[in-house]
């Protein structure tokens, strides 16, 4: 059995490292007489169907028997109010040096006490879909948010005979099950943006005053990724796929924030009609021993801004969040997509959207692609040095997306650095750097940078990106030194010429590299980075300046 949910009587003492105040406080709430357990998806569907604010559309759900749903199940819509994205400002990490955990222990106890008169639901699911990495997660949420509980059970792996057996046979970790207590109705004058408190060492979180479903999904992944990291896995917020070539396989992983093109790259079919297996477009872990990979979720939580009702992907919707509803020509209630109601409309889609889906890839990872939106970069770079490859992952430059609830006047159009495209990391950044460096140096994984934004004033189109990846896979890509550097090479693409004789362009590249170096030098204490990462970036600047 992978993670620990039951303790021997003799081990329930203050000496047990699996126990502390926050974990004990949160888990205790799950056993209250105001809490009802929901493990069956049909039960969850019925409760969500009747929950306040739910809209039952006339769109039928496909593969109901495979999913464990009623034959006549419909796509359910549930909408939030003003906030339709994740609120990073609400996150507090127990392990961070600046966190006064004692203060938060009292706030957490009071929040749970205040919720004692509410009726709650609880469920448990599996996170990780292969015996190489599986853990159990428990969620508790007020009954009126049954729609979120239902979406949670759809997004992760609901318990069934097959996965129960797989879990029993899976690798054992000396780690707690995940426990998440959520109360979107909570309010506190000191936390106007809500509170999402994480104790990653004990796999526990409390999410308060935040009703957006993505907080539950990413909160669970936050703790699952931290657990994986502690147990010799590389945690990955990205998409992974494998091409079945004539004489071998080619496995690639694309790392980028929501809206960067990560899903587009992951789901794109082969341009040469080769068979492709898709692991996932958002969350997986890589075993550091052999670079095999395991998906963490069966379903997809995707933006609906690029969909309309004529697209086949809509057939695999299970629930929708923050979309409109209207009547079609047949008088049927159907979703209004394309972000017409608001930005960041979402849908939980079933795994059956991808006919070529797999939950585990045993083959080693051939290449990592960092997806950036930095207008100083050509569409594709190849990095040949493992230290620089990891350093570019640390300084992944991109732009914020509508998936985030931006507070305090932050400009979402400003170029930002989000290490490894993972804003959900709660362990030291330097450890992630070392993990990816190991992939590049010891396991021979290649590294590329893909710019899916603008190069100068010219947009890098999806066709350019996908054609370039196809050329790389089939060894038809011709790379030449970037600015005379041996460590960085670029792919020549008509219309995206690189001209280092242009002083303005050279200065822009140096400026962006300096921004990366400044970011690395600014990391102290908990997130301090190895000197080699900063030194190599400084050397690149010296060579180009």
UniProtKB/TrEMBL annotation:
One of its GO terms (molecular function) is ATP binding. Transmembrane segments: none annotated. Belongs to the phosphoenolpyruvate carboxykinase (ATP) family. It comes from the Bacteria. Keywords: ATP-binding, Kinase, Lyase, Nucleotide-binding, Pyruvate, Transferase. Pathway: Carbohydrate biosynthesis; gluconeogenesis. This is phosphoenolpyruvate carboxykinase (ATP). Its EC number is 4.1.1.49. The keyword Cytoplasm does not apply. InterPro entries: PEP_carboxykinase_ATP, PEP_carboxykinase_C, PEP_carboxykinase_N. It comes from Weissella minor. The keyword Cell wall biogenesis/degradation does not apply. It catalyses: oxaloacetate + ATP = phosphoenolpyruvate + ADP + CO2. GO terms for biological process: gluconeogenesis.
């Amino acid at each position: 059995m992978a993670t620990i949910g039951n303790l021997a009587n003799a081990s329930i003492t203050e000496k047990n490292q699996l126990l502390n105040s926050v974990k004990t406080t949160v888990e205790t709430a799950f056993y209250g007489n105001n809490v009802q357990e929901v493990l069956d998806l049909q039960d969850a569907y019925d409760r969500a169907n009747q929950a306040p604010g739910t809209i039952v559309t006339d769109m039928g759900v496909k593969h109901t028997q495979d999913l464990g749903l009623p034959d006549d199940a419909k796509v359910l819509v549930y909408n939030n109010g003003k906030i339709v994205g994740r609120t990073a400002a609400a996150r507090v990490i127990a392990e961070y040096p600046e966190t006064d955990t004692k203060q938060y222990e009292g706030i957490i106890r009071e929040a749970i006490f205040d919720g004692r008169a509410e009726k709650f639901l609880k469920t448990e699911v599996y996170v990780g879909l292969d015996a190489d990495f599986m853990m159990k997660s428990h969620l508790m949420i007020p009954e009126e948010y049954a729609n979120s509980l239902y979406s949670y059970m759809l997004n992760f792996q609901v318990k069934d005979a097959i996965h129960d057996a797989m879990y029993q046979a899976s690798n054992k970790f000396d780690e707690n099950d995940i426990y998440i207590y959520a109360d979107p109705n909570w309010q506190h004058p000191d936390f106007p943006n809500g509170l999402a408190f994480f104790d990653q060492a004990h796999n526990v979180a409390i999410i308060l005053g935040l009703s957006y479903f993505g907080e539950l999904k990413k909160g669970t992944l936050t703790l699952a990724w931290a657990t994986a990291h502690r147990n010799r896995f590389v945690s990955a917020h990205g998409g992974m796929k494998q091409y079945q070539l004539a004489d071998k396989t080619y496995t690639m992983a694309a790392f980028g924030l929501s809206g960067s093109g990560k899903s587009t790259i992951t789901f794109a079919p082969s341009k040469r009609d080769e068979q492709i297996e898709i692991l996932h477009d958002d969350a997986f872990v890589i075993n550091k021993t052999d670079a095999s990979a395991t998906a963490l979720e069966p379903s997809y939580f995707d933006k609906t801004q690029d969909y309309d009702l004529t697209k086949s992907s809509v057939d695999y919707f299970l629930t929708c969040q923050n979309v409109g509803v209207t009547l079609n020509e047949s008088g049927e209630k159907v979703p209004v997509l394309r972000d017409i109601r608001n930005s960041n409309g979402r849908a939980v889609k079933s795994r059956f959207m991808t006919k070529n889906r797999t939950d585990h890839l045993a083959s080693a990872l051939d290449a990592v692609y960092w997806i950036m939106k930095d207008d100083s970069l050509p569409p594709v770079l190849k990095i040949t040095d493992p230290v620089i490859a990891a350093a570019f992952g640390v300084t992944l430059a991109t732009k914020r997306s509508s998936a985030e609830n931006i507070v305090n006047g932050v400009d979402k159009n400003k170029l930002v650095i989000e290490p490894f495209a993972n804003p959900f990391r709660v362990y030291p950044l330097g450890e992630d750097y070392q993990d990816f460096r190991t992939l590049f140096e010891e396991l021979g994984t290649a590294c590329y940078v893909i710019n899916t934004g603008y190069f100068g004033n010219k947009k890098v189109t999806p066709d350019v990106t996908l054609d370039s990846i196809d050329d790389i896979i089939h060894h038809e890509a011709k790379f030449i030194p970037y600015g005379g550097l041996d460590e960085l090479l670029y792919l020549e693409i008509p219309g995206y010429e690189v001209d280092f004789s242009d002083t303005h362009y050279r200065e822009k590249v140096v400026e962006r590299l300096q921004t990366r170096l400044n970011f690395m030098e600014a990391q102290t204490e908990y997130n301090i980075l190895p000197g080699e990462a900063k030194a190599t970036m400084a050397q690149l600047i010296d060579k180009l300046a």
